[in-house]
Structures are given as structure tokens and as C-alpha cells.
Design brief:
By secondary structure, the chain is mainly alpha-helical. The chain folds into three domains: 73 residues, no CATH class; 156 residues, no CATH class; 153 residues, Butyryl-CoA Dehydrogenase, subunit A, domain 3 (Up-down Bundle), CATH 1.20.140. 51% of the residues lie in helices and 12% in strands. The protein has 14 helices and twelve strands. The strands form five sheets. A three-stranded antiparallel beta sheet has the order 6-5-7. It has a three-stranded antiparallel beta sheet with strand order 11-10-12. Strands 1-2 form a two-stranded antiparallel ribbon. Helix 8 packs antiparallel against helix 13, helix 9 runs antiparallel to helix 10 and helix 10 runs parallel beside helix 13. The protein starts with 11 loop residues before the first strand and ends in a 16-residue tail after the last helix. It binds zinc ion (ZN) (2 copies). One zinc ion binds next to loops. InterPro entries: PqiA-like, PqiA-like_proteobact, PqiA-PqiB_transport. One of its GO terms (cellular component) is plasma membrane. This is Paraquat-inducible protein A. It comes from Alcanivorax borkumensis (strain ATCC 700651 / DSM 11573 / NCIMB 13689 / SK2).
Length: 429
């Protein structure tokens, strides 16, 4: 194996496989704050090199803010002389009280547990990098960092809290308590920390420079050269030699195994879950002895009747348009990736990336229900309970997210038999 090549200007140049189209790209590492993109599909190959001390400091601050958010009350309200304050954990706890433990686990895992594990891992890995000997578990945690990322939904919960406030502001006097501000700060700093993480750079610092196989060449696909690129650390290695990356030990896949079959299976499950998600109530309101179940669509109609158009549009988009749009988009991508005729691959990639990015935002409605159920526990005056629709709807969101992650975008580009010569480094601008 040859070492990493160097460019004419002395900057270190790496040959990196693009995870989304399989093209081997020459990436020059410079501290110029610029992102490096794949010339074929425009996938970001490498984030700019960052100040390494700031990332763990941000992660630690976010952890501190999360701890404070769990210790203090989040929202308070007063209605008919009754005062009540709820904490973040109450939002999950009340769901468990009403026999929806699965929903409680999903809420707690996505807004507290997974983000906390992610931030602790970032701190641990950076401590390991600063110590003379690697700390135990740092490689394992580095492998899990990118896998945890899509399931962190603190920002979605923060937006859901704002939607809940608009929903209930006319019904009760609402107070934003200390944990509201600390949690919003935590969600923001978590986002910044995630944006700063440079996975390839992290692996290089943990395990040293990537080794380049002699046959590796920019402007060709890894598959065409008999190579396979690790999706996580970017190491190129000969095809069929091992099922695990020799650099970071993550599983290696030339293409995701049974990608389309898995996507179809998950999409069919999501479609089946759509039926109870829209037939059963998402929440049940009991006020002065009168019980009123409310489905997702009924909730949207209620907002329209009250003239709350912006909220009606947000809930309708997040709960109806996005999940159905995502199912249709993924189904179309599965069909299109099997067709040999020339299709607009860049449009397919834009649709795939939008599908992958937007999925988690559908959880807004589930979080709104969790907040409202936690707030409105006032006995006979007003009690809100979660309905079966919420559980089924969460399943729709999770199955469509899993389907998007199972789809291998390299299948889209496999239809292109001949690569344009402009992808060779000497033709690139
Ligand atoms: Zn690419
Ligand atoms: Zn690897």
C-alpha cells in the first residue's frame, strides 16, 4: 500500500471514496475553512478542519445545559385557578402513565438519552486524543457517532414546544420556565457540535493517515477499480479481502446488502402503520365529563376553524405531507434505480437527500402531544390523554427513517455506464 499522495503545493492530498456515488475523489487538506465536495454528486466529502478544543468545550456546555434542563421546570401554566409546572421528563412520564411506554421511550431516547450519549462520546474521544495513550472504548464510540446523529431530535422538540405554546396560549396563562431556555440553548449548541464534527479527520487523528491502495485513482469508481470504500472512515481497500474495514473495523459493503428489498419491506410496514395512525385518535381530551377523541386530520381541521393557519400548515406538512411524500419519493427512487435508461441522477440525489433530511421533522406532532398531555392533567376540569394514533404515527416516522437509511444512493449512479472525463482531477476547476 502507498502512503497518501501530496499535491504540488505540499498540501496533503487524499483519495477518498464518495459514499453516495462511489467515485474516488482527490481531496486536498487545507486549513482554509472550505468544505470539499464530490465533483460527481456534490456530496460533502470532508468538513473544514476545526479548532479541536472548541468542539469538546461545546459538547461539555451542551451536556451541562441538558443536565440543568432535566433538573428545573420547563413550562408552567395557570387555568381556572389551578397552577401546574412540567419538566422535560414529565413529557415522557405522563405517556408511560397512560400505558404508552413505547412512546415514552421514543421521546426520552430522542431528546435526552441519545444526545447525551453523543455528547459524552465526543468529550471522551477528545480526552482520548489529548492523552498519551488512547482511552478504552474511544474507537467503539467513534464508530457510533455518525450512527447516533439522525436519531437526535432535541431541535425538533424545541420547535414542537413553540407549536404547543401557540396551540394552548388562548386556553391558559403560559409561563416559559428556566429549563425552557436551557433546553433551547442545549438544542442549539448540540446542532453546532454536530456540524463541527469531521469524521474523516477524527479517524485520522485516532488511527493515523489513511493508506492508499496502489490501484486507487481519482475519477474512477471504487467498484470499477476492484476497490471498496469504507463509509465511515474513508479507507479504500481491495474488494473481497475482508468484511470489515482494516482501518476502523466497521462493516464493509460494496453496496448495502438487499438494499431495495429492505427499503420495500420497511415502506410497506410504514404504509400499514399509516392506517391506525390516521384512524385512531392521537389524543383524547376530557373536559367537564365530556370526552373528545382527536385524530391528526381532526386536529388540523380544528386549527383551520380557529383561524390558526400557520400551525395548521405546520402540522399538516409534518404529519401528512412529509410521511406520505417520503413514502412516494423512496418508492420512486427504488423503481428509478432499477431502470437502465438515462435519468436525471442529480434530481434523484436531491430527492434522496431531502427525504433523508426531512424525516425526523415529522416527530413534531408526537412531541406536541407529549407536551400537551404533560401539561393538561387537571382532573375533571381538563385532562388530555395520548391515543393509539400517536404510537402508530411514531412507527410511521421510524420506519420511513429506517427505509431512507437502508437505501443505497450508489445504486442511482450504477446506471451510469461511462463516467465523464471531466471527473478526472486534471479536468476539475
Ligand atoms: Zn459523489
Ligand atoms: Zn473504515
Amino acid at each position: 500500500m502507498a502512503d497518501s499522495p501530496s499535491s504540488a503545493h505540499g498540501d496533503q492530498a487524499l483519495l477518498l471514496p464518495c459514499h453516495e456515488c462511489d467515485l474516488i475523489c482527490e481531496v486536498t487538506i487545507r486549513h482554509d475553512g472550505q468544505w470539499r465536495y464530490c465533483p460527481r454528486c456534490q456530496h460533502p466529502l470532508m468538513r473544514p478542519a476545526q479548532d479541536d478544543q472548541l468542539t469538546p468545550a461545546l459538547a461539555f456546555t451542551a451536556l451541562l445545559l441538558l443536565t440543568l434542563s432535566l433538573l428545573f421546570p420547563y413550562l408552567g401554566f395557570e387555568k381556572s385557578g389551578i397552577e401546574r409546572a412540567i419538566s422535560i421528563t414529565d413529557a415522557a412520564q405522563e405517556l408511560a402513565v397512560y400505558h404508552h411506554p413505547a412512546l415514552a421511550v421514543i421521546v426520552l431516547a430522542t431528546i435526552v438519552v441519545i444526545p447525551a450519549l453523543y455528547l459524552l462520546s465526543v468529550c471522551w474521544i477528545h480526552m482520548s486524543l489529548a492523552s498519551p495513550r488512547p482511552l478504552p472504548g474511544s474507537l467503539f464510540l467513534a464508530r457510533w457517532l455518525p450512527r447516533m446523529q439522525p436519531w437526535m431530535m432535541a431541535d425538533v422538540f424545541a420547535i414542537a414546544a413553540l407549536v404547543s405554546l401557540i396551540k394552548i396560549i388562548a386556553m391558559a396563562h403560559i409561563q416559559l420556565l428556566s429549563a425552557f431556555w436551557t433546553f433551547s440553548g442545549f438544542a442549539l449548541i448540540l446542532l453546532i457540535t454536530v456540524t463541527r464534527m469531521n469524521t474523516i479527520g477524527l479517524w485520522q487523528r485516532l488511527l493515523g493517515d489513511l493508506q492508499q491502495p496502489p490501484q486507487a485513482r481519482a475519477g474512477k469508481t471504487a467498484q470499477a477499480l476492484g476497490l471498496i470504500g469504507c463509509e465511515w472512515c474513508g479507507q479504500l481497500q481491495p474488494l473481497g479481502q475482508s468484511h470489515h474495514c482494516h482501518h476502523c473495523h466497521s462493516p464493509l459493503h460494496e453496496r448495502h446488502p438487499f438494499s431495495l428489498q429492505r427499503v420495500w419491506a420497511l415502506l410497506i410496514t410504514a404504509i400499514l402503520c399509516c392506517i391506525p395512525a390516521h384512524l385512531f385518535p392521537i389524543m383524547i381530551t376530557t373536559s367537564l365529563g365530556k370526552t373528545e377523541p382527536s385524530t391528526i386530520i381532526a386536529g388540523v381541521m380544528l386549527f383551520i376553524r380557529h383561524g390558526d393557519w400557520p400551525i395548521a400548515v405546520i402540522i399538516f406538512t409534518a404529519s401528512v405531507l412529509v410521511p406520505f411524500g417520503k413514502i412516494l419519493a423512496l418508492s420512486w427512487l427504488c423503481v428509478a434505480s432499477r431502470q437502465q435508461q438515462a435519468l436525471d441522477m442529480n434530481s434523484q440525489m436531491k430527492l434522496y437527500r431531502l427525504t433523508e433530511w426531512i424525516g425526523r421533522w415529522s416527530m413534531i406532532d408526537v412531541f406536541v402531544v407529549a407536551i400537551i398531555v404533560a401539561l393538561f392533567q387537571m382532573g375533571n376540569i381538563l385532562t388530555v390523554m395520548p391515543g393509539m394514533g400517536g404510537v402508530a404515527f411514531s412507527a410511521v416516522v421510524i420506519f420511513t427513517m429506517l427505509a431512507a437509511h437502508q437505501f443505497d444512493p450508489r445504486l442511482i449512479w450504477d446506471q451510469q455506464q461511462q463516467l465523464p472525463p471531466t471527473l478526472e482531477p486534471e479536468h476539475q476547476p
